[in-house]
């Protein structure tokens, strides 16, 4: 999360794209009215039926899903086309780093795609600039409420919904059962809150002789404790508060005690510490399992997974992929209907089973795939992750300069916790830096 040339170029690319997208949004006489009126949904309406009387081709873009999931999507598209005569879906897949450039180029040439797969950060940025369709005008209340509230609302601004949540992921708490029991703790009754996790970590340190956990000093530590990074309209820093001072002060004290390792530990370091039984806990996504299974099979065999304890904000951070409809789609009604089809409960459940991801649909997790465990660590992590979705929300700053802001916060935490800098003075300096970043990007 360092500020670098790549981050600058991405920010510049976004700025250029915004100027082209916004220029394309007006003055062309091609205003499209929403397909539905109050209380009605896009699917099955007379407007949609009339629109489909003429052949329609929908251009559907995804990120890095070919060729692994070709069979799934080819079957899905065939199913949709067979139930929607006259509609043809052209599926195109691009690498993660290429999709923003592709979107820029296509929009500039007047050939906007109809449905695009974007992460929450980029979707929220585009939506806030008016470059995406407001899906709230097209969805029924039932459709909007079919997704987990926190994930759906991650791209809702001023009552405008700019994305449909698709597949997602959340972190869980991995515990070394041997170390936990050595400390006199009951792994069958795991900690529910961050405060309880701290007490467990302290007892592990005192009685088992190892640290509780390692962590990376990153900006997400603020929203976990309910501390917003920016103000509501994203024009100024909002993190320099007494609550932030208290959070960082507690973290510093825990590191001094040895309850939390005094290190800015990236993912590879966290794997190393857990595999070496230098810590009892790991806060991570299920992909962590693959690494300890290979590096430390004995530790893997002795590890269990439970839902991640929540901080003061009582939420868990997710990392979601979404589907959006660009404002310049020539087929908005059909595009929204197709996006809703892909993200409905039945199709989200099917994709999660194929891709080993989590769904954002509430109804999906009632499926036994997400509720039953065969006792393996992988199954435990899947069930624990699924149980976390009711408190999940996507973490993002939501501005083009997000990478620079995240980097500034990370450096501030490093200065305080690794180098002993004064908390208040450092927060003041980082606040000034973030406000400068925002002013330069406006």
From TrEMBL:
Pfam families assigned: SBP_bac_1
Keyword Signal: yes
The keyword Signal is annotated on this UniProt entry: yes
Leader sequence residues: 1-23
Top-level taxon: Bacteria
Keywords from the named record: Signal
Alphabetized PANTHER family for the sequence: ARABINOSE-BINDING PROTEIN-RELATED, DIACETYLCHITOBIOSE BINDING PROTEIN DASA
Protein name per UniProt: Sugar ABC transporter substrate-binding protein
Species annotation: Paenibacillus albidus
Taxonomic lineage of the native organism: Bacteria, Bacillati, Bacillota, Bacilli, Bacillales
């Amino acid at each position: 999360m360092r500020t670098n040339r790549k981050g600058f170029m991405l920010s510049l690319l976004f700025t250029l794209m915004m100027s082209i997208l916004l220029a394309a949004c007006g003055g062309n006489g091609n205003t499209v009215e929403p397909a539905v009126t109050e209380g009605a949904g896009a699917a099955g309406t007379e407007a949609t039926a009339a629109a489909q009387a003429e052949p329609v081709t929908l251009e559907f873009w995804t990120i890095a899903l070919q060729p692994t999931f070709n069979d799934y999507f080819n079957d899905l598209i065939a199913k949709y086309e067979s139930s929607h005569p006259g509609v043809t879906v052209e599926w195109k897949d691009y690498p993660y780093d290429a999709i923003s450039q592709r979107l820029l180029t296509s929009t500039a040439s007047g050939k906007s795609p109809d449905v695009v797969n974007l992460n929450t950060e980029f979707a929220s940025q585009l939506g806030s600039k008016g470059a995406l369709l407001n899906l709230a005008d097209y969805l029924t209340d039932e459709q909007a409420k079919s997704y987990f509230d926190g994930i759906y609302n991650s791209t809702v601004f001023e009552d405008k919904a700019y994305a449909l949540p698709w597949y997602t992921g959340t972190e869980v708490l991995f515990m070394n059962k041997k170390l936990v029991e050595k400390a006199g703790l009951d792994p069958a009754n795991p900690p529910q809150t961050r405060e309880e996790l701290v007490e467990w970590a302290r007892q592990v340190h005192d009685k088992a002789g190892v640290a509780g956990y390692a962590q990376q000093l990153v900006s997400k530590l603020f929203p976990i404790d309910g501390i917003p990074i920016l103000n509501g309209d994203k024009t100024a820093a909002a993190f320099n508060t007494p609550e932030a001072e208290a959070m960082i002060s507690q973290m510093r004290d825990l590191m001094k005690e040895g309850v939390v390792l005094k290190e800015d530990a990236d993912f590879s370091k966290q794997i190393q510490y857990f595999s070496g039984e230098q810590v009892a806990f790991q806060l991570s996504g299920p992909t962590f399992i693959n690494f300890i299974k290979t590096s430390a099979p004995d530790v893997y065999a002795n590890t269990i997974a439970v839902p991640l304890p929540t901080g003061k904000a009582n939420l868990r951070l997710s990392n979601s992929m979404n589907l959006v409809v660009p404002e310049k789609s020539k087929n908005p009604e059909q595009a929204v209907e197709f996006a809703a089809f892909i993200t409905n409960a039945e199709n989200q459940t099917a994709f999660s089973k194929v891709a080993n991801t989590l769904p954002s649909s509430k109804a999906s997790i009632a499926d036994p795939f997400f509720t039953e465990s065969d006792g393996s660590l992988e199954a435990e992590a899947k069930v624990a992750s699924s149980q976390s979705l009711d408190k999940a929300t996507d973490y993002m700053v939501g501005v083009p300069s997000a990478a620079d802001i995240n980097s500034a916060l990370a450096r501030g935490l490093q200065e305080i916790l690794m180098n002993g800098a004064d908390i208040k003075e450092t927060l003041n300096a980082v606040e000034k830096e973030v406000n400068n970043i925002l002013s330069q990007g406006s």
